[in-house]
Design goal:
The complex is a heterodimer of chains A (292) and B (240). In chain A, 74% of the residues lie in helices and 1% in strands. Chain A has 11 helices and 2 strands; from the N terminus they run ααααββααααααα. Chain A has one domain: ABC transporter involved in vitamin B12 uptake, BtuC (Orthogonal Bundle), CATH 1.10.3470. Chain A has 292 residues and is mainly α. Chain B is α/β, with parallel strands linked by helices. In chain B, the strands form 2 sheets. In chain B, strands 6-7-8-3-9-10 form a 6-stranded mixed β-sheet, with helices on both faces. Chain B has a 4-stranded antiparallel β-sheet with strand order 2-1-4-5, covered by helices on one side. In chain B, α3 packs parallel to α6. Chain B contains 10 helices and 10 strands. Classes of the chains: A mainly alpha (292), B alpha/beta (240).
Amino acid sequence: MVRFLNLTLAGITDGMIFATIALALVMIFRATRVINFAQGAMMMLTTFVGWTVQDRTGSYWLALGCALAAGLVLGTLVERVFIRPVENGPELNAAVVALGLIVLINALASMIWGSTPRAYPVPFSLRGYSVGGVRLLLSPNDLFTIGMVAFTMTALVLLFRRTALGLRMRAGAYSPELARLLGVRVGATLTIGWALAGLIGALAGVLIAPVVFLGPDQFDTVLVYGFTAAIIGGLESPVGSVVGGLLLGCTLSYVSGYAGSEVTSLGACAVLLVALMARPSGLFGPATGRRV
Amino acid sequence: MLEIDDLTVDYGSVRALDHVTLRAPLGSITTVLGANGAGKTTLLRAVSGLARPASGSISFAGHRIDRRRVEDIAGLGIAHLPSGQGVIVELTVAENLRLGSLISPKPPAGRKEDLDQVYDMFPVLSQRRRDVAASLSGGERQLLAIGTALMSRPRLILLDEPSLGLAPRAVAHIMAVLRRIHEDSGRTVLLVEQNARSALSIADRVVVLNLGRVVIDEDASALAADPRSMQRLRHAYLGF
């Protein structure tokens, strides 16, 4: 029973990080119909910015702030410089540009920081809490991770549901032409969407870096799980990305705990297949097929 | 109010509007009639900036608008309701209306009054304010589109075939609503229609387009009284 509880706790922590990556992908897909394959490379770059600040100043929090700011800037730049010119072309164009960005950013990071994985510090203890003499797989740092992700999700939901900017962003995403006729600067809302996705990705990067280490290719596995979570959730729904992330995180944790860590990725495949068989457009995706 | 001079719009090699000149005077309802492909929709798209003119000019309240951005033109007080899909179906009724009011920074008190007025005028929207627009009927969506436009306090309303796909009773209701909006607030309306009978019932002035050219431009009452004009109207529609 304790083992099950521990595996669940570990699954939730991992799942929250998958959910964060999924959320960044969902934000962009909802607004621009682009699957941002470069999300992993972008978060790797921003995490390196954080790592550098941490290295120079020794302050975790300053580094976190700089990484998040770098995420905002990078998201804005990528949208304005690389995506905007191909936005009106076929959707595949933007996907190809994103793939090209991966190569570009990876090369850049290797040139600046080298390709040896580096350790990234944690702000809080990794020692699990003990309850009644039983050590739990939940540390203060895990709580920090869960808290940060939960805070970001809540802030995003409030932004979308309660603010004028959020309403404009949703209108611009759902129906760009109508939104423009109602005075929404759709170009600006799209850029803001990418900037926010960059910020969320940067957060995910800083949270996952202590676990998988930091290097040009270290985030690849996590990124695949983030994609899986987004697709389980339906690619369109922020709530879906959280549910997808948690579902995937817990499944992977059970699989690696009960069946062995060598079959973990099979577990991801299985949960994806089952979810898509049950609901082909994702758990929270649109009920009907998209009309083209 | 709205002055269109010598306007030409091309879609590739197809000339959609050919040297069109027309006026929508302040406080009037002008209807633009014509068959499919006559250039009616293009005319409205050119005014709101969605279609770029090849030549000619469009002025609104004394300012040239034909090179300005869609969002800026909307901000000047021109509300364009495209045909068919005039609401954002993924948003709720209340959100659509709120979006309309966001067009210019106004004090929230004014917004609240506008909202009450719209709900007063369209009680069905008030009952369904929390529902997504996708769940509304075609007629209700059209009312919501008009309500959203009103929330932006437009000086000029461009309507593209509000009767499209609606039952006759719903069409009559929409026309009555337009008449009422016009009478209550003196707003200028440019109404594009295929349904000539409905449009003529509320219009002050009639413009008929045929293959991108203006073929009739006169007072609605004069047109209705003049059999020769009516014949030309029929010709523009039916080709005989």
